[in-house]
Amino acid sequence: MSVPPDSGPTATPPGSGSPQGPTLATADSGPPSQADLATIEAIAALLVVAGVTVTALGAQLVKLLATKVSAAAIRLTLKAMTSVKITPPPRSPTSATDYNTEAEPLYRAAFILNSARRVERATKAGRSQAEIIAAERRHYLLHLQAAAKRQAAAAATDRAARRYGRKIGWYAVLDRITSPECRAAHGTNFDLDKRPSIGYPGSVHPHCRCKPGKPWPNGKSTDVATRRYTRRAI
Ligand SMILES: [Zn+2]
After folding, report:
1. How far is the CA of 4 from the centre of ligand 1 (A)?
2. Ligand 1 centroid vs 148 CA: distance in angstroms?
3. Taking the domains of the chain in order of start, what are their residue ranges?
4. What CA–CA distance (Å, rounded) separates 44 from 136?
5. Which of 53, 60, 199, 207 has a beta carbon 3.0–4.6 Å from 203's, enabling a disulfide?
């Protein structure tokens, strides 16, 4: 059995909509543009008001995305998303879990933008509504799986913090398939009071093998060492 590659872009099929690393890409590859980042942040703000559900979003979202995708595409996206039930994660103050919960609307917002664009392309290509919704349900379930991975990574960070204190070390598995961002993060430290820009160890991309642990003596800051990758993960 072969080991899946531990690399960013190649670990995620183009357009899969998986929210790790390249997930916030608003086209099928590459980081989101400044204009899309602004849109993603605006959708995220709506999601916070709506309690990170999509049911209350319809009209506002259509208005917000009017220049980017069609209203019909957004409605289909929301239909697919609302057909999947979500249980919001519990919150505990000042923990990695808490910071992760706060970041989640941005990932969901990026998913909505990506999803609406896929729906629009599929509609133009003549696919049926049923086919489109089935496809978007699969994308959304992948998004939820990645969200669960982020939550698990945050919980692992909280466990490391209980053991080692609020400064935490980043440990990557270094071999030929280590992704550049995980390689850059290895040997660095981050503080529990600020979520690393690339996410917590273990959630940088779908096959991330990184772990949190004892802080490195004289370790650099994780955010400084991974600065060039941060737009991919917000
Ligand atoms: Zn990793």
Report:
1. 13
2. 16
3. 8-159, 166-233
4. 19
5. 199
